[in-house]
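Lab notebook page, bench 4
Experiment: in silico fold of construct C2
Operator: M.H.
Input chain length: 97 residues
Purpose: comparison with the prior construct
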Amino acid sequence: GVMKVLDHTQALEELARACGAEAEWIVELVAVGVLAPQGRETPDWRFRAADLTCARRVARLQRDFGASMEAAAVMIDLLHQIDQLHARLKRAGLDVD
């Protein structure tokens, strides 16, 4: 279950299952640079809880907007940059909503 994901890393099949996707789809996410697993070979790949969140975001973008893998990768990158900017503004004492 999801609780297990939080305290350790998970393998390719587990991540795919958690996203309701095929393992090949996860491999594509790694290929376009959306996910960066630990481990050199595919069987050794381990993903963190943050990767699950990210993969689910991509799945939602593809489902809701029919985004291609490449388009979704760009959107995820932009969303990540926005999150970082918000965090930086918050640290600087400027709240944004």
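Observations: Residues 4 and 50 are 13 Å apart (CA to CA). The first helix runs from residue 2 to 7.
Next step: discuss at group meeting.
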